[in-house]
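Hey, can you fold this one?
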Amino acid sequence: MRLEFEGIDELIREIDRIEGLTTQIKNKALEKGGDILRDRMKEEVYRHGLDPYTWEAYESIIRTNPKNGELFVGTQGGIKQPGYYLYMHEFGYYNVRAKRFIPPKPFASIAFENSKNDILNAYLEEFRKGLGMK
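Sure. Predicted structure:
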């Protein structure tokens, strides 16, 4: 029994092309969604009790570039980085001098929850555009 496939090479090339495109498209979609989240976090940062004295918190919220299919939105982290205190405001902290727990004043989780649909719509739009479906 002998099987022959005509056009299989073209099919394999097309599948390889789509696989190559999906990495680029995924990175573009992640960047678009990350930009939406970063902007929403910047809008929310001073709405929940922080004082915009120096605007350091606003300026410290960044978006990284995609790497291995993920990116991060927030502050750079570390005690010497600007905006390091945003973690304490998001999750609360124990004040040693006052000897009591200071409750959280979340902004990042609120921004994320409120912009989930917009981020998913941006992903969908980028995938449609990248695959030529729009």
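The chain has four helices and four strands. Let me know if you want another pass with a different chain boundary.
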